[in-house]
Amino acid sequence: MPVIGRDEILQHVPHAGRMCLIDEVTSWDAGGIVCLARSHAREDHPLRRFGRLSALHLVEYGAQAMAIHGALLERERGAQAQPGMLVSVRDFRTQVPSLDGLAGPLTVAARSQMARPGALIYEFRCLHDGIAIASGRVAVMLSTAA
Q: So what's the pLDDT on residue 2?
């Protein structure tokens, strides 16, 4: 049973329709989040090109988990999450060239490494069938109201 389902996720992140890649949040706390995604198996995946879905797109899964986590933290504070822009990906490693043929859900975990006004850094890991298939760090600059 998901802690947070797709309908609620769509209320908290800017990703709409098929571009919202995360299906559910299975757990989260102040330091991080664990999500499940099944979108990689869809033929109509919005990032699929020429019938293939590159493992590079796991960065987007990590970034979306991060965005959901930030939105949940802001909701607890009674605030709205600020829009952000991914500005850096570091130490990205993958053990698979593509997501094609991976049956079953992906587990996407993200942990906050740094949170300052206007900037966030998260570490993420993607697993399939309990095996780590990608990891990295993502930095986001948040929009600030003038």
A: 63
84 neighbors 120 (Cβ within 8 angstroms):
yes
Q: Which two tokens stand for residue 111?
A: 């942990």
Class of 6-142 in CATH: alpha beta
State the pairing for strand pair 84-94/24-29. unpaired
Q: Which residues of 76-112 are buried (b: 16+ CB within 10 A; e: fewer)?
A: eeeeebbebeeeeeeebebebeebeebeebbbbbbbb
CB atoms under 10 Å from CB of 34, counted, come to: 20
Instruction: Identify the segments of the chain with pLDDT beneath 70.
Output: 1-2, 144-146
List pLDDT tens digits, range 88-113. Answer: 999 999 999 999 999 999 999 999 99
Per-residue tokens: 88: 């850096």
Count of CB atoms within 10 A of residue 16's CB? 8
